Amino acid sequence: MTPSNDTNSRSSVLQNYRALPLGILGRSIAVSGLVLLLLYAFLSKSHDSPFSDSFNLPFHLQWPADSSSTSVHNTTMESPTNISHIGFIVIGSLNSWRWRKAYIESWWRPNVTRGYVFLDKEPTQEFLPWPATSPPFQVNADITKLRVFPRIANPLQVRMFHSLLDMYRVGDKDLRWLIMCDDDSVMFVDNLVEVLGKYDHTKYQYIGGISECVKSNADFSFDMGFGGAGYAVSYPFAQAISTKLDDCIERYPYLWVSDHMAQSCFADLGIALSIEKGIHQIDLHGDISGFLSSHPQSPLLTLHHFDTIDPIFPKMDKFEAIRHLMKAAKVDQSRLAQQTICYQRKSNWSFSVSWGYSANIYENIIPRSILRKPLETFRPWERNARPPFFMFNTRWVSNNPCEAPHVFFFESIEHNPENGQVLTTYVRAAQRNLPPCSASGNHSADSISKIRVLSQAKTRKTAGVIECCDVDYKAETNSSDIKISVCSCKHRVKNALSIPISRIRVQQVPGILFTPFCPHSLSFRSMILPEHVTIRVQVPFNSRNPAWVSFDGKERKQLTAGDALVCSMAPWPVPTACQIDSANDFL
Ligand SMILES: *[C@@H]1O[C@H](CO)[C@@H](O)[C@H](O)[C@H]1NC(C)=O
Ligand SMILES: *[C@@H]1O[C@H](CO)[C@@H](O)[C@H](O)[C@H]1NC(C)=O
Ligand SMILES: *[C@@H]1O[C@H](CO)[C@@H](O)[C@H](O)[C@H]1NC(C)=O
Ligand SMILES: *[C@@H]1O[C@H](CO)[C@@H](O)[C@H](O)[C@H]1NC(C)=O
Ligand SMILES: *[C@@H]1O[C@H](CO)[C@@H](O)[C@H](O)[C@H]1NC(C)=O
Ligand SMILES: *[C@@H]1O[C@H](CO)[C@@H](O)[C@H](O)[C@H]1NC(C)=O
């Protein structure tokens, strides 16, 4: 175990004293013993074992008897969900298509993404020939023919809702999901494929997002998928709706908004909304950079309302700005707008990177719990709403030099497909025009003009898992380099024959880290096991040699055939002390 290599004052260490559920220290000692044993046991059986050609670990995991028996999505016979399984229903109108097609074309992949833009009328000569870069079009069915038409309060909105049925009637094959969105919605399709893949598409599903504003949700429903943000329905559900949709319009002709009608209809079929955190209605006005710089740890799926917000990058128009974001999205959507926070102790700075979008430097050590709250750079949808405006916590924009960030925006991306390395560069938006933060030692970041962030695109970021970063500040070039990596020892194992435990970074997860030292084969990797398991390492009964176990390098003990070492979590916590948090340093 290394203590933090900082000679910080004892009082600050004590202030941050905290107890972990179980000391990682204690666990690691036990595990290092285990690991040696694993090796002995493995070697001893490798010659005479009848199992030696199969990958058979010489230990057993005991899971508690009550461990989950929940039904798992049946994927055994089925191919994973891919982009061809999604049909997009882009609801447009001929009038707005003139400019809004730029939003759709920013994410549409001709001949790859499937679906249509649904228009209110046949395109006129001006729109023809229909470009191959746009989704093909369909014209909505004429709802004036519906018996209920005279009673419909808002025919435009009913036409929008009716697109779901119109799409179903087109009859495209092999779809698992239909996604409804507007003509000013931007979809992140790789992330949608991943997130929808987690759901069972053979069941009835309705997946969407609610508004950022409390008032919008209160006015409609906290259980309604806002249509501009996009909502997905599984194909069997679309099939079920297709027979009920016209009845439904007859039941609710007075509803003013199509999404509200959809939600009422779906509720009648017994289906409630599943909310995904990456689906964004963007019921906001002004500068949403604060929102996108502290996005939740969840894949970015959709963004809406580009006509009503400021361009998301300074010095660009709305369309350029979205195409610019897509440069990063094309390389690695899984990390897009995912926040990574790291600290530079030498100058008491906090860095917050929203990958592919922005990077912020604070001249102070600010806890992650605070940096995760968006800076309120934006305004709520309705000016006359009463607080609380938003569905999430925000931070006030401040002129306090210890709280106001230096803001940098995504400038360029370089991708090396060979080794998967991605370098994104962020440049300063403007000078901060504030004195340095004196409480943390007057370390000005004014001279930094550029932040370069190195990440790895070979593996997609696991949704919900926070990645680590290390900062390297280069005073000579006025730039800072940040390296983002997965917070686990896996990448450090690669060809290593031994892993110094001191180099393993620890995330605060309740679990047991099982680390092979000098593994017999490279397929032996570290494992993180749930904290409640019992690990049993046993010398096989037919082993010709005994095994040895040692605890913390001392007290060697021989194990003969049939003997086992059983290891489980101690019931008592081991306190650790840290200066920032246990993901960064601990004693
Ligand atoms: C999984 O799907 C296959 C084919 O669709 C089916 O034959 C099998 O019974 C299913 N298994 C379960 C556990 O539902
Ligand atoms: C998606 O999976 C289907 C099989 O379910 C396959 O036929 C199709 O080629 C795949 N499409 C892509 C783009 O991988
Ligand atoms: C899409 O496919 C069609 C027919 O297969 C082809 O003519 C067209 O060039 C393709 N478009 C693009 C953008 O690849
Ligand atoms: C960092 O800030 C603390 C006060 O928060 C201060 O005591 C310490 O000296 C500062 N460190 C440096 C290197 O300036
Ligand atoms: C920072 O600078 C201010 C003004 O120059 C000074 O009053 C303050 O003592 C300085 N703080 C530290 C920690 O050096
Ligand atoms: C770094 O920034 C400082 C202050 O803005 C400036 O004087 C210096 O020339 C810059 N150095 C480089 C290498 O750009």
UniProtKB/TrEMBL annotation:
<dbReference type="Pfam" id="PF20143">
    <property type="entry name" value="NAD_kinase_C"/>
</dbReference>
<keyword id="KW-0472">Membrane</keyword>
<dbReference type="InterPro" id="IPR017438">
    <property type="entry name" value="ATP-NAD_kinase_N"/>
</dbReference>
<keyword id="KW-0812">Transmembrane</keyword>
<feature type="transmembrane region" description="Helical">
    <location>
        <begin position="20"/>
        <end position="43"/>
    </location>
</feature>
<dbReference type="Pfam" id="PF04646">
    <property type="entry name" value="DUF604"/>
</dbReference>
<dbReference type="GO" id="GO:0019674">
    <property type="term" value="P:NAD+ metabolic process"/>
</dbReference>
<protein>
    <submittedName>
        <fullName>Uncharacterized protein</fullName>
    </submittedName>
</protein>
<dbReference type="InterPro" id="IPR017437">
    <property type="entry name" value="ATP-NAD_kinase_PpnK-typ_C"/>
</dbReference>
<dbReference type="GO" id="GO:0003951">
    <property type="term" value="F:NAD+ kinase activity"/>
</dbReference>
<keyword id="KW-1133">Transmembrane helix</keyword>
<dbReference type="InterPro" id="IPR016064">
    <property type="entry name" value="NAD/diacylglycerol_kinase_sf"/>
</dbReference>
<dbReference type="InterPro" id="IPR006740">
    <property type="entry name" value="DUF604"/>
</dbReference>
